[in-house]
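During the reporting period the student researcher (J.K.) took over the structure-prediction task from the postdoctoral fellow and processed the backlog of single-chain submissions. One of the processed entries is reproduced below for the supervisory committee.
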Amino acid sequence: MTSTLISSLYSFPWPVERAHVKIVAHFRRTNEFPKAGEHYVEVRRDLESVAPHISRLLNIGLEFCKHDKDWVHLKNGEDFRFISRVPYGSRYKVEAVYSTGRDMAMYMGGSLVEINSDFGRYPTLTSIIDNFKDSWVYGGYPSEIPEIATKVCSDHGVELWSVGHMISLFRRQETLLEAVRSTLEMLKRSDLYKEENGEIIVKQEANITLSGVSGSSININSSGATATVKTIYQQPAVFDELIAAVKAQGFEGKAEEKLLRNVEDLAVGHKVGRFQEAYKDFMQNVSAHITVFSPVLAGLAALL
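J.K. obtained the following structure tokens:
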């Protein structure tokens, strides 16, 4: 059963279109391929609301294209030619690692990269998601291919560096497929996808409670969600404690008046939102009488 399944890979049901081959061939020919994750991709305008997820898909596509070059090197530039040491009847089980892995890289690389440019194939977000429903992303290939290849080589005493690295590359690509799958699921939960499919988007109103703020406008990072909040300023009790500390000292008229005025300026600074600056002025102005305020300085500093 397994042999029949792996043999069928040579007529894999998902075609590698000419456009995909052209993209991969360009990178392979020019060797100008940038590293995935370091290449800035400007997402097309109609997908800007889901740009982070689309950008991830595009960069994963670039990584698959890079892997296609790796497959070519492993097959033609290393010791894969010694695959002939494996008996002919079992050899296809090892060759399946290369044929399946490279088909995967070519199809996924081309399909993902073209999201940003092929409007005929991907006119909407929904079409992007639907395109991958019956692709490598959701399986459909024998996942045990690497294990079978390893066992065949071991049974016949054949150890090839290229095959080991092909198996590793195969597994890395499966990890990329998982990333694509999870990203597509995230896109299905986006407002854009829901709108394209006729779902009504309900914007939830936020209940906001603020204290210590006088007359503020709050923008909640979404269109049509601006709220103006009016609150009654409540002066912290520490300012009454400062006044009481001054009066308790029994200063003569002008000295007490000056200290009380400093406290008043500090309270006003807190009310209008410039407390840090007012605090510095207060500490400088009352430095000669700082011991008067020692019992309440900790509470005052807590307002910073």
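The committee noted the following: Residues 63 and 202 are 37 Å apart (CA to CA).
J.K. will present the remaining backlog at the next meeting.
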